[in-house]
């Protein structure tokens, strides 16, 4: 992550340490967050599924440095994301991702979604429509805020012994209803929570000068790799096995 940031003249991510900015161990409770519930909520989102019965749905192994922590987590349908709301920051999310380097490239590729224009004023996810999960992940990767920090993890959500039906996310299509009784089904994703918040209601995520540097860094890299670059415009000039990785 820091390689692509430094190429664009942005400060390197440090390790997040503040409450609400760190993806916590699944078996602990912080001052503000019940971690087991938080990870259930995150798993519901990244699998696009909801559980119809309060059964154990997650085996969570969190790897911090050289120490692993495991816990079983339960959850029910209808979670309103209350624990996730206690987190602050902007998520970068790579669905079906198992490789950290590939995740960073996926987020970086969100550049093309802005059609070579300075990203518009942000209101909320998909408003304007360009702010899909991938576009938000791009902004999180290139978070321009001062003293940036990040907390990252590789998450595998394993469901078993329950019925499941699709829970559609706005930016995902094609999910189908599946009967999971007696079976296990896994979904893996790479997620990073970056801070300070990179997207605020009523504000553009980048000043034009910062955007120009990002464009120059991306276009220059693509040219050196023999990829047809995006031409700059005039405007320019977020059961489980969870392993926390230092992506930065």
Give a short summary of the structure.
Helix content is 22%, strand content 25%. With 248 residues, it is an alpha+beta fold.
Secondary structure layout plus pairing:
Layout: H1 2-7, E1 14-15, H2 35-47, E2 49-51, E3 56-64, E4 67-74, E5 90-95, H3 100-108, H4 133-141, E6 149-160, E7 163-166, E8 178-179, E9 184-195, H5 208-224, E10 241-243
Parallel strand pairs: 1-6, 3-10
Antiparallel strand pairs: 2-7, 3-4, 5-9, 6-9, 6-10, 7-8
How would you explain this protein's 3D organization?
The chain is of the alpha+beta class. The protein has one domain (about 1-245). The protein has five helices and ten strands; from the N terminus they run αβαββββααββββαβ. It has helices at about 1-5, 35-45, 100-110, 135-140, 210-225; strands spanning about 15, 50, 55-65, 65-75, 90-95, 150-160, 165, 180, 185-195, 240-245. Strands 1, 3, 4, 5, 6, 9 and 10 form a seven-stranded mixed β-sheet that branches. The chain has a three-stranded antiparallel β-sheet with strand order 2-7-8. The radius of gyration is 18 Å and the shape is globular. The termini are close together. Mean pLDDT is about 75; it is low at about 50-80, about 160-180 and about 225-245.
Number of strands: 10
End-to-end separation in angstroms reads 5 Å
Total individual domains: 1
Order of helical and strand elements = HEHEEEEHHEEEEHE
**Tertiary shape:** globular
| Oligomeric state, counting identical vs distinct chains | single chain
Beta-strand percent range:
15-25%
Query: Cα-atom Rg, whole angstroms?
Result: 18 Å
Structural class computed from helices and strand pairing? alpha+beta
Given as residue ranges, the uncertain stretches (5+ residues, pLDDT < 50) are 50-79, 161-182, 224-246
The major pleated sheet works out as: 7 strands, mixed
Helical proportion, percent range: 10-25%
Mean model confidence by pLDDT: 74
Q: How many separate helices?
A: 5
């Amino acid at each position: 992550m820091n390689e692509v940031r430094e190429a664009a003249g942005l400060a390197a991510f440090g390790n997040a340490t503040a409450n609400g900015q760190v993806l916590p161990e699944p078996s602990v409770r912080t001052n503000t967050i019940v971690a087991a519930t938080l990870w259930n909520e995150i798993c519901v989102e990244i699998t696009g599924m909801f559980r119809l019965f309060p059964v154990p749905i997650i085996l969570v192994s969190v790897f911090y440095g050289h120490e692993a922590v495991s816990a079983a987590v339960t959850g029910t349908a209808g979670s309103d994301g209350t624990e996730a709301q206690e987190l602050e920051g902007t998520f970068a999310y790579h669905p079906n991702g198992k490789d950290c380097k590939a995740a960073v490239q996926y987020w970086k590729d969100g550049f093309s979604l802005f059609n070579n224009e300075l990203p518009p004023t942000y209101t909320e996810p998909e408003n304007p429509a360009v702010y899909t999960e991938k576009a938000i992940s791009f902004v999180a990767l290139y978070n321009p805020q001062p003293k940036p920090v990040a907390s990252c993890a590789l998450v595998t959500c394993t469901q078993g012994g329950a019925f499941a039906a699709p829970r559609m996310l706005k930016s995902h299509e094609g999910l189908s209803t599946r009967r999971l009784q007696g079976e296990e089904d896994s979904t893996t994703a790479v997620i990073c929570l970056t801070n300070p918040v990179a997207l605020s209601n009523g504000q553009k995520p980048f000043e034009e000068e910062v955007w120009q540097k990002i464009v120059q860094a991306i276009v220059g890299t693509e040219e050196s790799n023999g990829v047809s670059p995006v031409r700059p415009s005039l405007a320019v000039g977020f059961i489980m096995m969870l392993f926390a990785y230092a992506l930065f």
